[in-house]
């Protein structure tokens, strides 16, 4: 399945942008309904109070100022002041509420994206760069927060004020009202035509922010190689290129986002000009009063001024929409490795079987082609073969890190896909070539994912270590279980990492233990020790050992030779060696 977030679905994406996007974003806000409603009411109060201002002013000019009845001016002034003070408090309430909605949205979205990332299969992480994912979680969600916290209610308030002003304009004098509103129609057409382009420019800009983040992450992760090979210039150049691309797309997005303001201002001024010219003409022929013209100009201003603000809000909206599309692509991804119904028959002697299994990585040829073999309970299997032959891929299918493209993998006679991830990982332990550890103590690392022993006391844990023989490994760490593991720096060697991963896997007592080059960085004396620990595992434990060092597999019951898409059983260690030599000579 294509999990690459930066390719595919382009046509679909275009169609989904806009209304569909907003609808799905609103779907994520159901819990904010109450707060949004209160904020909306506060916003309506602010808008309405601001709208009545011009009509009171016009009325004051015509009825009190021109007739010098100043007590009326004072009363209307007091009413206006009261309205503006209430509008101020309502505005403050709305801003505060929306600020908290924005923060909660940020919190919820980041949680949803992170949760989804936890659910997605291994393949997803092969196809996407960590830096880009980090950028989506940090940067893109923040753009949505900015829109909610600063723009949404302002956006709605502006729309309300504009509608209100338009109604006042048309009802005061409809011909003049329609003439004043004509430039708004031109603005609407302009916005409609340019919006898809603006959206595209924003999406491109956000994408390059993701690339920039990936580049930084890659070079920081590989700084040792960079220093060792003195290739700072190489990463500097690569970073320079991506940074340049980011700069260019950001400039283009900036141009796109900022072109609205001057265009909106031009049309607003046009509206004002029309009103002034026609208004003065209507006054000269006695169809209009000065007070009405003052009200009229005030409403034209309260129609067009927010439109100028709308220009910058529109760009915040476009950025938020593009950011939401990037987040939504993760949230809506389906895991292509679902759990299926179990239909198998248990064969008591066989633990795991491949039935005509083929597998290809996305956009690649078959790495495994129609493979069939059985792994019997309690036996030790060695998988050997040349580099790139397909050993790790076979092991990954055994552990269901990937699903086969064709054929079936059976665990205990049942389709491996019918097991829950918890059941599967309890039965199958996998020690990878480069084990994953996280910063913490050895105890935390070895109990990682072990739900049964999660709360076990150190005393009881040490007893298990004694019984299983793991104690001798733990003694190699200065502070035993409490030894700190710092994976961000150089605090731990690869061999030590492999020892911790070994303890973690053995402690789970899985039915099937896969060791993929798991002892490649361990000295031969310790390797002997590991072998003794493996011997102490329950008799029924099946072991799959992938190794290049042939002494590691000397005790295997069965040896499989993996190369060019095939898995062939070798009769003996000598035959496996011959196969390897032949393979090497052929290449
Ligand atoms: N994530 C991936 N995406 C695409 N191709 C891959 C991926 N992982 C491995 N391959 C390809 O699949 C083939 C088999 O790789 P695999 O890692 O299974 O070999 P291996 O026998 O374990 O090699 P080694 O002994 O070096 O560990 C290789 O051609 C490799 O390039």
Automatic annotation (TrEMBL):
Pfam families (UniProt xref): ABC_membrane, ABC_tran
PROSITE patterns referenced in this protein's UniProt entry, alphabetically: ABC_TM1F (PS50929), ABC_TRANSPORTER_2 (PS50893)
Protein's cellular compartments: Cell membrane
Gene3D superfamilies for this protein: ABC transporter type 1, transmembrane domain (1.20.1560.10), P-loop containing nucleotide triphosphate hydrolases (3.40.50.300)
GO molecular function per UniProt: ABC-type oligopeptide transporter activity; ATP binding; ATP hydrolysis activity
A GO CC term assigned to this protein in UniProt: plasma membrane
Topology relative to the membrane: Multi-pass membrane protein
Domain ABC transporter: 352-587
InterPro entries reported for this sequence: AAA+_ATPase, ABC1_TM_dom, ABC1_TM_sf, ABC_transporter-like_ATP-bd, P-loop_NTPase, Type_1_exporter
Transmembrane segments: 36-58, 70-93, 155-174, 180-198, 261-282, 288-307
Location of the ABC transmembrane type-1 domain: 37-318
UniProt keyword list: ATP-binding, Cell membrane, Membrane, Nucleotide-binding, Transmembrane, Transmembrane helix, Transport
Coiled coil: none
Superkingdom as given in the UniProt entry: Bacteria
UniProt keyword Nucleotide-binding present: yes
SUPFAM superfamilies, per the entry: ABC transporter transmembrane region, P-loop containing nucleoside triphosphate hydrolases
Descriptive protein name: ABC transporter ATP-binding protein
UniProt source species: Maribellus luteus
